[in-house]
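Bit of a strange request maybe. I'm writing a small parser for structure token strings and I need a real example to test against, not something I typed by hand. Could someone generate the tokens for this chain?
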Amino acid sequence: MRIWLVTGASKGLGSAIARAALARGDRVALTGRKMSPADPVFAEFPDTALAVALDVSNSESIRAAVRKVEQWAGRIDILVNNAGQGIHGAIEETSDTSLRALFDVNFFGVATLIREVLPSMRERGSGFIINIGSVAGFVSNPGTGAYCATKFALEGLTEALRKEVAGMGIRVSMVAPGGMRTGFNGPSIWQADVRMEAYQATAGARTDELGRNAARRGSDVRAVAAAVWHLASKTDPPLHLILGADAIERIDEKLSLLRSQLAKANPLTEDFSDNSSDASSCGTVDPGVENEHT
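Reply from user aminoacidic:
Good idea to test on real output. This should exercise your parser:
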């Protein structure tokens, strides 16, 4: 019996992941800002499900939630960082306040939770951290650039973390689903602070379409949840679990673009020893020396 902590478990993918684990005999702490003990899941699994109030944008709330789960079950085997928020609007339409609030939920909350569970995982020499990313962490589009930025950041954090804990018995993976039939792009989505006519043909048109089709397009959320459960059972999981035909297609297009650009990339190995006036500023790059961009 494994002990899960799933954030954002009051609805959508988080709820589906929690149910998938509970149905297979594991114990799950379902967390969320509005996680109610009256949810039917707790009557269905009274001995193995725990409701925990957790605001991922609040560090003290995170620490209190982790302590409560550890007191309940003794440990956390699997942390699923699923809680997330989206925002519709062009970059220019999105205020600094909104952007920072989005990063608090989608990135900084994840980082804080990871730091809270890592000490005990390291001490035991076991544990699994699963970060729920998105195809939006690979490919950015108009109207959701702020959300994509948070998922790109989470991608970098996850890849580094996996390398840092290698050999400690701690597994780390990133799940990158495409669209799902949930209410994510529905009424609960944040809207940019202003709407500018200049962006109606790009950001506006796309976010209007996302709103119209919320919960109507994409993968079955239960299938995504089942895939996450199977991922958690792997002893040597991949860094990325990419789910959904649309995610595969969009990432493949991005890889094709990068390959074409890589083929034209300049390795900067030209010999500038002609003593020209700008030779000193353009000299060859030593690939064995790290610089501020690596």
